[in-house]
């Protein structure tokens, strides 16, 4: 049984564990990895290395650019056929394995999310080119489903052999008369899935946003950006907005349609949940249409209340403010009741989390609410601004990998109906009162002194951290889950939620508290000991006959 550490008087300086971890690396690797590890001090600015290439062989948690573009951003959108141009292996996590939920308006409304569309590239396509096969696949998909849009996603070999998915898409758009567009999101295009987010944002902005200038509907119109409806999170938020009388025009991209992206430029405000994956669209919409954006967080009861209040404050309408307060009072009472029962059981427990590009920050709010302590955290692929805050953006070095991704030049719309002078004025006026727009403070200012921040954590580092901190809970994904659990530490998947959830909003907070109780108030983990430490499972011998 492991002996628990007591950090009630403050966290220990993690420098010795950083030194121990990197002492096992070759000197070049050690030098590079050290820059990705910071003993946090929330009072000062500390640069952390992020969004750089992973060291080959280090066993990273990261995914590829194609995963970020096709899987994350476009994947949850149900009325577009997402056609993968590549070998079938790249589509493994497509067919009936999506974690994002969706709810078509009617039983017969378009929903292609349960399908897997792939050109199933073969060796001969690699040798002779795959454009003909891609055209045939687009025609076949069109004939079978008659969709309004098709997105074509490039996998690694497509870039290597030079198939032009954009030219094919243009040709097919003309031939079939529907919206067809391609993405150069080859897996290797960037250093992680983050590049794929950017490429997806660019593609949607270029080919979809602004295609439908329908008149504005509703008094308070928003888009929710960077909410992907894992475990039904978006449904819980939709419920809250609807009751408050806020019109949710489009969500990027949980429970979404490309149809709604097309008129999503008609809103009054963009609320950004996952800054990493979607800040580009928020910025581009502001540049082109004058629509301001704010950062929100709906993970945790108090964060949800805070974000709802901030939205209501933006619209500055007495009736809306009153309604929002009524919802908060009612929902918080329910949240508090559950929290009061569970908090005493989990208070003081230690959590660590290494997840994606936003959740490793957002979920700290839920742990804080339960009195748990986040001893170490990091993102897989976020950028420095997600750690340190957006004020560091001008200092971020643009390297060749970043230059590899197209940067769109956005100009103000020349349609006076669409340019929102009223919103520009409103933003200026609210800013004078201290209301923050286009602002994200990042993860590090919220973390405790001497907590350990690590970007793109490796397998070796994970093992060492567990040995050092002996945490009560580790949050990561499926690739890490069983290794961590075999060391006697429960792991909560924060990508798929272990098929639980929702965890967003008030109901989500209640679900999460209960999940923590289930996972942490048990002795079973103390009984786990890695069996092969004492009893090797397989003993073998080999005789070589010379
Ligand atoms: Fe944003 Fe995401 Fe995340 Fe992300 Fe992701 Fe995800 Fe994630 Mo997995 S967009 S950065 S690329 S919140 S798939 S829905 S859970 S790593 S923390």
TrEMBL record:
Cofactors demanded by this protein: [8Fe-7S] cluster; [7Fe-Mo-9S-C-homocitryl] cluster
Functional note: This molybdenum-iron protein is part of the nitrogenase complex that catalyzes the key enzymatic reactions in nitrogen fixation.
UniProt-recorded name of the protein: Nitrogenase protein alpha chain
Any GO MF annotation of the entry: metal ion binding
Reaction catalyzed: N2 + 8 reduced [2Fe-2S]-[ferredoxin] + 16 ATP + 16 H2O = H2 + 8 oxidized [2Fe-2S]-[ferredoxin] + 2 NH4(+) + 16 ADP + 16 phosphate + 6 H(+)
UniProt family annotation: Belongs to the NifD/NifK/NifE/NifN family.
Keywords: ATP-binding, Iron, Iron-sulfur, Metal-binding, Molybdenum, Nitrogen fixation, Nucleotide-binding, Oxidoreductase
EC assignment: 1.18.6.1
Family annotation (PANTHER family): NITROGENASE MOLYBDENUM-IRON PROTEIN ALPHA CHAIN
Gene3D superfamilies: Nitrogenase MoFe cofactor biosynthesis protein NifE, C-terminal, Nitrogenase molybdenum iron protein domain
Pfam family, one: Oxidored_nitro
Organism expressing this protein natively: Saccharicrinis fermentans DSM 9555 = JCM 21142
PROSITE patterns: NITROGENASE_1_1 (PS00699), NITROGENASE_1_2 (PS00090)
GO cellular component terms attached to this protein's record: molybdenum-iron nitrogenase complex
């Amino acid at each position: 049984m492991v002996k628990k550490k007591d950090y009630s008087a403050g966290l220990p300086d993690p420098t010795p564990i950083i030194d121990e971890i990197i002492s096992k690396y070759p000197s070049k690797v050690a030098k590079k990895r050290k820059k990705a590890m910071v003993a946090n001090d929330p009072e000062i600015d500390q640069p952390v290395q992020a969004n750089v290439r992973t060291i080959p062989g280090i066993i990273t948690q990261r995914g590829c650019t194609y995963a970020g573009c096709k899987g994350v951003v476009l994947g949850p959108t149900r009325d577009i056929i997402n056609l993968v141009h590549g070998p079938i292996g790249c589509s493994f996590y497509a067919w009936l394995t999506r974690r994002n939920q969706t709810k078509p308006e009617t039983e017969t409304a378009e929903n292609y999310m349960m399908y897997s569309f792939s050109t199933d590239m073969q060796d001969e396509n690699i040798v002779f080119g795959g454009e003909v096969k891609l055209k045939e696949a687009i025609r076949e998909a069109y004939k079978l489903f008659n969709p309004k849009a098709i997105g074509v996603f490039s996998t690694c070999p497509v870039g290597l052999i030079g198939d032009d998915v954009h030219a094919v898409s243009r040709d097919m758009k003309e031939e079939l008369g529907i919206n067809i567009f391609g993405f150069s999101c080859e897996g290797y295009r960037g250093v992680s899935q983050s590049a794929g987010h950017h490429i997806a944002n660019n593609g949607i902005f270029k080919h979809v946003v602004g295609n439908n200038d329908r008149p504005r509907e509703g008094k308070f119109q928003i888009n929710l950006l960077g909410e992907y409806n894992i475990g039904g999170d978006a449904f819980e938020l939709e419920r809250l907005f609807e009751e408050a009388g806020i019109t949710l025009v489009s969500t990027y991209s949980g429970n979404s349609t490309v149809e709604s992206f097309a008129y999503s430029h008609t809103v009054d405000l963009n609320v950004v949940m996952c800054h990493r994956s979607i800040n580009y669209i928020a910025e581009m919409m502001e540049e082109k249409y004058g629509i301001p954006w704010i950062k929100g967080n709906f993970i945790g009861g108090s964060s949800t209340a805070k974000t709802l209040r901030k939205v209501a404050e933006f619209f500055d309408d007495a009736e809306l403010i009153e309604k929002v307060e009524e919802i908060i009072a009612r929902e918080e009472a329910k949240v508090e009741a559950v929290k009061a029962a569970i908090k005493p059981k989990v208070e003081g427990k230690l959590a660590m989390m290494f997840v994606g590009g936003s959740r490793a920050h957002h979920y700290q709010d839920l742990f804080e609410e339960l009195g748990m302590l986040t001893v170490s955290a990091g993102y897989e692929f976020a950028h420095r601004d997600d750690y340190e805050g957006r004020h560091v953006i001008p200092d971020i070095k643009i390297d060749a990998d970043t230059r590899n991704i197209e940067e769109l030049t956005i100009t103000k719309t020349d349609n006076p109906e669409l340019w929102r002078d009223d919103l520009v004025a409103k933003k200026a006026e609210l800013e004078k009162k201290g209301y923050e727009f286009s602002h994200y403070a990042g993860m590090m200012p919220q973390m405790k002194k001497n907590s350990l921040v690590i970007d793109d954590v490796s397998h070796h580092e994970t093992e060492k951290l567990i040995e050092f901190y002996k945490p009560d809970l580790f949050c990561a994904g499926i690739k890490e889950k069983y290794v961590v659990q075999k060391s006697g530490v429960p792991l909560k998947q924060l990508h798929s939620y272990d098929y639980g959830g929702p965890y967003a909003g008030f109901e989500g907070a209640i679900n999460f508290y209960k999940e923590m109780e289930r996972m942490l108030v048990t002795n079973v983990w103390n009984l786990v000991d890695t069996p092969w430490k004492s009893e090797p499972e397989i003993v073998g011998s080999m005789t070589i006959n010379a």
